[in-house]
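Consider the following assembly input.
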Amino acid sequence: MLAGIDYFIVIAYIIGMLLLGLYFKKFVNSSEDYFLGGKSLPFWAIGMSIVVSDIGALDFVGVSGQAYRYGISVGNFDWVGSVPAMLLAAFIFIPYFWRGGMYTIPEYLGRRYNQKVRTIASVTWILFFALDLGVLFWASAVLLNVLMGWPIWISIISTAGVVGLYTYFGGITAVIMTDVVQFIIMFIGGFALVFLSLYEVGGWDNMVDKIATMGPEYRNHFDIIQPQNTKSPFPWTGILFGLTFVMANAYMIGNQSIVQRCLTAKNEWHAKASMIFGSALKMFIPILVLFPGLMAVVVHPGLLDGDQALPMMIKSILPPGLVGLMFAAFFAGLMSSVDSLLNSTATLFTKDIYEPFIKKGADDKHYLKVGQITTLVLLVIGVATSPISSDFPGIYVAIQTFMSYFQGPIFAILLLGIFWKRTTEWGGLSALVIGIGFAVYLNVFKEQFFTIEDPFLYISWWSFLLGVIINVSVSLMTKKHTEEQLKGLVFSSKILVKNKNV
Amino acid sequence: MFNFDWLSGVSQETAKMVFLSLYGVIGLLVLLLPTEYIYEGIAKEDRHWWNNLKLWSISVLAILASIYYHF
């Protein structure tokens, strides 16, 4: 349980977030304000928002636990698994999306391929985000229940109330600006834990020496590159092919909640800069989430469950006051993930489903209202489905696995769509459907195909490769698109120089 | 094949060089981007060296490479 000062910090944080979020209500007068912040936001706010919405409380605990078990190689996900992809996004993809005035990634796929590809991509994201919402509400409730002693349902409704209110009224501007504060709190709380933990273990060199003497299972704990035949889920081949070439790009380029933030930038320079600034900040994330797990190996050796590493470190290292700040940092991670999911799902539904299929050509105020009502409906769905997490404890992993089916094929069609003129609508559609099917097949029969314990990196690579092959083969057999259809949608070296209309 | 067994003979040191080379190639590609494209969105009279996104990108890649070199 928290001490009095911790309790005060957490309550002050929650109320502060609510008030800050509601302040941005006055800037929302149109659907563009609601979904794209009126295209007025600066790069630093977007960069911070990208980073904080990417890292949630569940990741804090999970990554620390993996660092406890597997060592520093977990950091690959935030280092090589982010920086190259964010640079590719910044210099190639984001300028196209921003110049095209797009709201969603499926909108690009719809223009480049056809409406079916757009709808499949959009529905998949909506399903994923909606399922994730319930899981995150439950995780917030468990945190509030354990640390503040609040009953589960009161905790769920208060989280939904605070995040829902500012997201409903303030749209993506409120989401991004509250993310900035959440980012600062997360970094202060996280670094406090790292510095105090380092002091506890006698400094970095002392920690490395102690871990090196703990036995052969810790031999590779400080090797960022793991051998191909490692039993951990992170062999260098998986990190290079699965993570660097596919999953990282699919996440940074094909994830609506990430890309939508860049589209709120006030101009093209800010859109590009937001991704690059975000990539610089991302390099600090392993320090916050990975180092406490490593230091727990020394402070709390022999834990049966690695996910206990971070909670144990907080309990044993942090003084009153900083525990409250760390908890606020956890809660910040959860709130930023929830508000991102709410706003992005509302955007996907309004722009990709409601506008083309339910009511075309309505006035802008109507779509603004639809976006707000969708946010409310999602809140209700999230609250109603949150107990599923209690009945099925593995649901978070199941949702992430479900999403990994989608990553390879979606990146295959995005990559070929923007770089290869000859790609056709039927090539894209068949690559998406067959690629997803192949990823599901590999996952169901993974024991027959793979030797590592969790082959999601390999699955994303092979489903990506098949997606590319199918897309190329089918495209060559079907009628190519006209130059007029491809205008502004396919990469041309001309975009790098003068002609902005390419 | 699915487990990349054909790369089992590659040592960790060589694999590390592959990652470092990748950062080098990305850095080179960033440097090849036209300066006009890098500043797109900022009026000509407001352009300063600190707005140069090539510098930002190269700095980030240099830090990333040093992390991989060290570990």
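Residues 38 and 207 of chain A are 49 Å apart (CA to CA). Ask yourself how this observation constrains the way the partners meet.
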